[in-house]
Amino acid sequence: MQKNNIEEICRILSETIKFPKSELKSFSDYSFLMAVVMSAQTTDVQVNKVTDKLFKKYKTIDDFLNLGEKNLAKEISSIGLYRNKAKNIIGLLKILKEKYNGRVPNSREALESLPGVGRKSANVVLNELFDQPTIAVDTHVLRLTNVMGISTSNNPLQVEKDLERAIPEKYKRNISNYLVLHGRYVCKARKPDCDHCQISEICPKIFKK
Questions:
Q1: Where are the domains of the chain?
Q2: In contact, 106 and 130? CB cutoff 8 Å
């Protein structure tokens, strides 16, 4: 895709998506990190159903540590991989308490050293909590990057690099959320709504029948 078309897509998305933020619900930095870990291979909608109840019952890191891995697993049993996620969450909360005074660290290295936190999760946290222009590549971002001709790769790290090169600097802070939200509500995987898509005229792969 030509550079001017990429910039135009970014401009249009920035005007149509007024609140480019994660839809995961949280009440603190550490609870957002918990929600991000829970969201792996699970929809934000399902995670929010769980955390809506969970975060009303337990408010502090100590609350969750006292709850323990097995009981936390029961609380989040409606989401995928819940046992492993409960183990990772209790593990990372212990580290936050012991090493970071209960605070979420703001470096990629520190975040990726926490249980259950990979590159994509670290990018989400750095972007949402610390306003860093990191690019998190989830299924929506990967799919739309290919649809728009920005990348031809199916490797998340390569897609991230392609976006880093292609996206104008002023849009990097929000590009992941622009693509996630556009992919979630307009350019949907099963049935893209091209008739109501404001970038369909410059999208190189239009799904209209």
A1: 3-20+135-196, 29-130
A2: yes
Phi/psi at 10 (5° precision)? -60, -40
Question: End-to-end CA distance of the chain, in Å?
Answer: 22
Topology of domain 29-130, per CATH? Endonuclease III; domain 1 (1.10.340)
H-helix or E-strand spanning residue 82: helix 82-99
pLDDT value of position 206? 46
Same CATH topology for 3-20+135-196 and 29-130?
A: no
What residues are labeled active site?
120, 138
How many other C-beta atoms lie within 10 A of the C-beta of residue 2?
A: 10
How is domain 3-20+135-196 classified at the CATH fold level? Endonuclease Iii, domain 2 (1.10.1670)
- DSSP tag of 106: -
Asked whether residue 209 carries a pLDDT value surpassing 70, the answer given is no
pLDDT computed for residue 51 by the predictor: 98
Q: Residue 184 is encoded by which pair of tokens?
A: 């979630």
